[in-house]
Amino acid sequence: MKDSFFFKKNVDIRVGGKYRVRKKIGDGSFNEIYQGSDIFDNSEVAIKLEHNSIKYPQLLFESRLLKSIPGIGIPKVYWAGVSGEYNVMVLELLGNNLEELFQNCEKKFSLKTILMIAIQIIDRIRHLHVHNYIHRDIKPQNFSIGKGENEHIIYLIDYGLAKRYREEYTNFHIPLRQNIKLTGTIRYASCNAINKKELSRRDDMESIGYLLIYLSKGVLPWQGLKIKQKSEKYSKIREIKMTIETNKLCEGLPEEFGEYIDLVKNLEFEEEPDYTRYINMFNELIKKKEFVKDYLYDWVGDKKNNNNKNLKEESMFNEFSKIEENEYSIMNKHISGINFSNFKDDKNKKESNIEEKKNNEEKDKEEKEDEEKKNENCEIY
Questions:
Q1: pTM (2 d.p.)
Q2: 12, 38, 137, 298: which is the annotated catalytic residue?
Q3: Is 38 a catalytic residue?
Q4: How much of the chain is in helix, strand and coil states, percent to nearest 5?
Q5: Domain assignment of residue 360, yes or no
């Protein structure tokens, strides 16, 4: 990213009329993240900056997406726009990401902590998928914990590589394409991704599996390869991922991890993942191990006085999941009763929805352009 000297000066910098930029707290591939505050109530916020000189800006796309999918574990956007030479997004300030927390715990998470993480991140991805988007860059760095009363909620962050996989009004799925550039982070990328296939919901779910194995073991079989040349290293990673048996990959872990990997790797391109089954599977493992789902993660420590809040939060989380599951079920029933083969030929529908479709086509066009740009910017390591 272009040097943000303007923001390094010891002066009062504001964006969006009321948000003061304070200290820098992080870097992305093409942006910087600052801690800031609301000048009226002094509440803390995160301020994400992207210089407008970069070839393929993504920040304003990300802000539009976040505003369209509000929910538990989705960062709130307070303001987005242009300020001087920067595209800016002001959003909810979060805590450490899972990779930072993992390192702080000396790369050792208990099974209880991993299972509580698994249930939440599957539900976050389900929420995103319900709203017709896939994330395409699942990794520990893209999940953060909340702050204050939300410190036990795991948030899904960084939607710069997200893509619409299904048309909003017709439910038409994107086609399966071949020989496309790898999108995301190769360590957690699905087998389809490294084989240069178009990604869909199944690939987010497979990447979650690799993330959980990494948090369980501290390492994945294709990590730490001592190969200097990038192309050779890429080929070796591909070879290991394509040939490793599930029982070897999940060796030493409860059988539910291997079952999850097999289930998601066998999904078809357009097939809907069985999110409820996956969540129930890990919930049952929690019960079998006699763990208490109290959201006292390894990094939290013993905070017994938080139990009431945690139980209330769990109840809210479960209720939200039920509501979302019901909405998704109703939507699928409605869609299944529509004859889409005649959809394009129905002139009456076209006339009554012409303005809506026009707006949707413009949105899809923007997203296709964003997709082409984002594929050139994807992170591979």
A1: 0.82
A2: 137
A3: no
A4: 45, 15, 40
A5: no
